[in-house]
Write a structure and sequence with these properties.
The protein is of the alpha/beta class. It is 31% helix and 16% strand. Bound molecules: alpha-D-glucopyranose and calcium ion (CA).
Length: 573
């Protein structure tokens, strides 16, 4: 496989609004990120993805862009952005912005002009259809945030525009070459400014099944999820390939796609050599158990389910390319809250989960606060929820017959706000995030459980320090052939409560082995192997544990190792 500069790097997602507020207005900003670059460097992060900071009404927290060429004043100025790029460069760090081009904001100049003249140049940047009073909408798709994908074009009684997300996020018409040119011009403008690349938002939606048509309804509202249409979609690759050739490739940019439900046979096109993107996220565990009928019907994910999802992706991707591994992002609950069962969530199990996902084959990503073990925030009322997706999900659950209590419980589990609460810097007021009033509640556990950076920095056994060790291990050139380029081979995958795999390089083999149960258990090492070195564990590996392991080998039977409850070991074999 051709080596790329980013293969041995560590990526980190910043959600600017909640990262660090430099001026006391309660909203995180670019100067706040600049102030914390040394922190990120010290942690070991190299590639930083910033969720959107462009001019936006923030109807969907910046994923509704009104001006692609300017920074929203709440986040700072273009000078701040240039300063961030320069400061990152000085530290050998790389900045990615969020590329949101499936849609823009209804406050973007293009959309305003489209409303003025739906048949003119800008009308053709969108999907606008004539619907006479009494006629039905062009199709019955349901937007991701609820309700039909069609809304009345402001100023026109008989015209409707398409939005697969919120009504303030009109979809851009990628069938129109003029629109595509505008998008490529913008991408190149940013790359010329010194960006390393982009995280590419919701990109699979840019190709619609045309002409618009109905599908059988999947709920009582008579509508059907947009994802149904995506099953039948053909030709998105033509757009993606053109975008790559016109923008990313000439700049040698790094890109990571937000791609859901890709077909296995498409993986080479997406992330193989000369793929549309450098990488894309593994969402197999993210979407596990999701019900289309309401969050209250979604299933929990057990450690075994988690392992099976992850291993299936590893097998599908193999050596084709580099998948991006995550346990959370700004659209999901906190990974430790989702993947560690209630009652089992503490520092040891958080370290176990950390090691398990981080050392998989692919690019490891950390979402802000994950390195501290930040958890979901308890909600006592729907009034406390800001996120539009969660508000819709709450209404859907109620309509489907859930009680307000059940609906709120589901929101608490799955809300995007869980990941959006301010970063917990210290034990000071508002966790040191702002001197003003934070735009979203701070999780009280920054005090009650001491989950904050200051406390964890002082504690050598903290999750934060464990992440630093994991990062150092993955960056150690001695283990690159195994931990960066080695195959990932599941081991003992049929044993409940165990998640274990080999990373097998040309020169070295590393075994990652974890016990998701509270009780200790003894497991065999792969035949013919013995432990050369314990590279990392979340427990002290006592002499006894290791002697027992090597004795087995001496006695001519498979060596064994006893793992404590929630123990993970990373072993050089
Ligand atoms: C992506 C973003 C999400 C946003 C949506 C619409 O899924 O990650 O936050 O709401 O796209 O842009
Ligand atoms: Ca601010």
């Amino acid at each position: 496989m051709k080596k790329e500069w980013w293969h041995n790097k560590i990526a980190y997602q910043i959600y600017p609004k909640s990262f660090y507020d430099s001026n006391g207005d309660g909203i995180g900003d670019l100067q706040g990120i600049i102030a914390k670059l040394d922190y990120l460097k010290e942690l070991g992060a190299d590639i930083l993805w910033l969720s959107p900071i462009y001019v936006s009404p923030l109807a969907d927290q910046g994923y509704d862009i009104a001006d692609y060429y300017n920074i929203d004043p709440r986040f700072g100025t273009m000078e701040d952005m240039d300063q961030l790029l320069a400061e990152a460069r000085r530290r050998d760090m790389y900045i990615l912005m969020d590329l949101v081009v499936n849609h823009c904001s209804d406050e973007h100049e293009w959309f305003r002009k489209a409303c003025e003249d739906p048949d003119g140049r800008y009308g053709k940047f969108f999907y606008i259809e004539t619907v006479k009073p009494g006629e039905k909408l062009p199709c019955n798709w349901r937007s991701y945030f609820g309700g039909p994908v069609w809304d009345k074009l402001p100023g026109h009684e008989d015209k409707y525009y398409l939005h697969v997300f919120h009504k303030k996020q009109p979809d851009l018409n990628w069938e129109n070459p003029d629109l595509r040119e505008e998008v490529y011009r913008m991408i190149n403008w940013w790359l010329d400014r010194g960006l390393a690349g982009f995280r590419i938002d919701a990109i699979i939606n840019i190709k619609k099944v045309l002409p618009f048509r109905d599908y059988p309804a999947d709920r009582d509202d008579g509508l059907v999820s947009v994802t149904r249409m995506l099953h039948d979609q053909e030709g998105v690759g033509d757009f993606l390939g053109e975008m790559r050739d016109r923008t990313f490739k000439p700049h040698d940019a790094f890109t990571v796609g937000e791609v859901f439900n890709e077909k296995p046979e498409d993986i080479p096109d997406f992330i193989g050599p000369d793929g549309y993107f450098s990488s894309m996220y593994d969402f197999a565990a993210t979407v596990f158990g999701q019900s289309q009928l309401g969050w209250h019907l979604s299933e929990d994910i057990s450690p075994d389910d988690y392992r099976d999802c992850v291993f299936a992706t590893q097998e599908r991707v193999g050596r084709i390319g580099f998948i991006s591994n995550i346990i959370e992002n700004h659209d999901e609950p906190r990974g430790v809250s989702r993947y560690i069962p209630d009652g089992d969530r503490f520092t040891a199990s958080k370290k176990l989960l950390a090691a398990e996902y981080f050392l998989l084959r692919g690019l490891p990503w950390i979402y802000q606060g994950q390195e501290l073990g930040m958890e979901n925030i308890p909600f006592s009322s729907i009034e406390e929820v800001d996120d539009i997706a969660s508000l819709d999900a709450y209404a859907v659950s109620l309509e489907a017959g859930a009680s307000p209590k059940e609906a709120l419980l589901a929101v608490s589990k799955f809300s995007r706000d869980n990941a959006r609460t301010p970063f917990q810097w210290s034990a000071e007021a508002n966790a040191g995030f702002t001197t003003g009033t934070p735009w979203l509640r701070v999780n009280p556990n920054y005090l009650s459980q001491g989950i904050n950076l200051e406390a964890e920095r002082d504690d050598p056994d903290s999750l934060y320090h464990f992440y630093r060790k994991l990062i150092a291990l993955r960056k150690d050139p001695a283990f690159e052939d195994a931990l960066v380029y080695g195959d990932c081979i599941p081991y003992l995958a049929d044993q409940s409560g165990v998640m274990s795999y080999l990373r097998k390089g040309d020169a070295r083999t590393i075994l990652v082995m974890g016990n998701f149960d509270a009780d200790a258990r003894t497991l065999p090492l792969p035949e013919g192997t013995r432990i050369r070195e314990v590279l990392l564990s979340n427990f002290d590996c006592g002499k006894e544990q290791l002697t027992a392991a090597s004795q087995g080998a001496a006695a001519d039977r498979p060596a064994e190792i006893t793992l404590q409850g929630y123990q993970v070991v990373v072993l050089l074999l």
